């Protein structure tokens, strides 16, 4: 979601990300700058609402390329192996660590996922899933 006028560097980045095909995966909205604070963003600014972890998350120019930032933010810190995440795991050929374990995810795996978020994908799956 973009907060602000249809002009400036942040709006240009938002438009470029939307035109790149990212809008096929995420809804892109523009709204009044007065709404920015309720999404944790500054105006002009961008925030991404997601249904996992901390949400919404606000984009900062210091985060680098908006499209690359949004693609990283669309992936949970811990991914449960499923068809929904085949593309980020295998299609992007990102480094990934997959834990096969029955029961709960181990604390050390969760701590490593938090420390290395954005550089390595942490995926977990049951041993008998898919059989």
Report on this model:
The protein has 131 residues and is of the alpha/beta class. It has two domains: 2-73; 78-125, no CATH class. 26% of the residues lie in helices and 18% in strands. It is built from four helices and seven strands, in the order βαβββαβαβαβ. The protein has a four-stranded mixed sheet, covered by helices on one side. Strands 5-7-6 form a three-stranded parallel sheet, covered by helices on one side. β6 (96-100), α4 and β7 form a beta-alpha-beta unit. The protein is elongated and about 50 Å long. It starts with a strand and ends in a 6-residue tail after the last strand. The mean pLDDT is 85.
Mean pLDDT: 85
Query: Structural class of the helices, strands and pairings?
Result: alpha/beta
Shape: elongated
The rounded distance between the terminal residues' Cα atoms is 40 Å
Low-confidence stretches: none
Gyration radius from CA atoms, angstroms? 17 Å
Please report the number of helical segments: 4
Instruction: Going across the biggest sheet, name each strand in turn.
Output: 2-1-3-4
Order of helices and strands: EHEEEHEHEHE
Using DSSP, what is the number of strands? 7
Give the total of domains: 2
Report the helical percentage: 25-40%
Main pleated-sheet profile: 4 strands, mixed
Strand content is 15-25%
């Amino acid at each position: 979601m973009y907060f602000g006028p249809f002009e400036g560097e942040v709006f240009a980045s938002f438009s470029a990300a939307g035109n790149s095909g990212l809008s096929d995966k995420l809804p892109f909205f523009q709204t009044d700058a007065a709404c920015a604070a309720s999404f944790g963003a500054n105006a002009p600014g961008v925030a991404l609402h997601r249904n996992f972890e901390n949400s919404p998350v606000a984009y900062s120019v210091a985060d680098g390329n908006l499209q690359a930032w949004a693609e990283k933010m669309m992936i949970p810190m811990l991914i449960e192996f499923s068809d929904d995440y085949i593309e980020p795991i295998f299609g992007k050929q990102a480094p990934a660590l997959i834990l096969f374990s029955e029961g709960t995810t181990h604390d050390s795996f969760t701590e490593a996922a938090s420390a290395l978020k954005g550089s390595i994908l942490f995926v977990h799956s049951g041993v008998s899933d898919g059989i």
